[in-house]
Amino acid sequence: VEMIRKIKSYMNFGLGMRELADYAFFDEQFLQMLGWDPGITVSVTSPVSENWKRLVTTLIPNMLKAIFDNNGVQKKMRFFEWDRVWMQQKNNVVVESKKMTGILFDADSKEDFYDGKDALENFCIAMGYQVSWHPVAHTVLIEQNIPWFEPYQVAYLMKNGKNIGFAGV
Question: Fewer Cβ in 10 A, N or C end of the chain?
């Protein structure tokens, strides 16, 4: 609990990011607008709405929707979310895990990969993590159904030889 407070505090005050607390479901209308299908997901048997019926496997579409919904009002936005995602394995076992996702957006100037990298590295240093950056092949993005990153501007984040996430434009 103390580490979570430290992380959220740094995201808020150190990086000037606002925390999102979004639904645990994909917004089906927004997914259609993105033209993205998340693939195998966990669906609820009695959804409140046809628009909110599948549990999220990634927090990124919700981040993109927050940018889309606020773009007319705000020119510069920084959001993060620390929340659950659900993955359905091939044997129909559902695995729930916590993920953290962040997004930096500036409508007036193109966000630079290295600005984001500096912010993320400063976060890792503040948390006591040492990470290394490794390029991601464009084919990996296609194979893993990750269309939102610019090709050749995305990297794996590795800690002690283990992939802990992605960072990119």
Answer: N
Q: How far apart are CA 21 and CA 155, in angstroms?
A: 26
**Which residues on adjacent β-strands are paired with residue 86?**
96
Cα 68 to Cα 53, 130, 141, distances in angstroms: 21, 33, 22
What is the Cα 80 distance to its own chain's centre?
8
**Tokens 């510069």 sit at which residue?**
76
Answer yes or no: are the C-beta atoms of 6 and 82 closer than 8 Å.
no
Question: 17: closest CA among 68, 55, 74?
Answer: 74
The predicted model scores a pTM of: 0.88
Pairing of strands 94-106, 76-88: antiparallel
Residue 83 has pLDDT above 70, yes or no: yes
Instruction: Put the strands of the sheet holding 76-88 in their side by side order.
Output: 18-19, 76-88, 94-106
**Location of structure tokens 């940018």:** 67
Band the pLDDT of 162: cuts 50, 70, 90.
very high
Q: Which strand (E) or helix (H) includes residue 77?
A: strand 76-88
Instruction: Give the span between the Cα atoms of 14 and 52, in whole angstroms.
Output: 34
Nearby residues of 82 by Cβ (< 8 Å), 6 or more positions away: 4, 7, 8, 19, 98, 99, 100
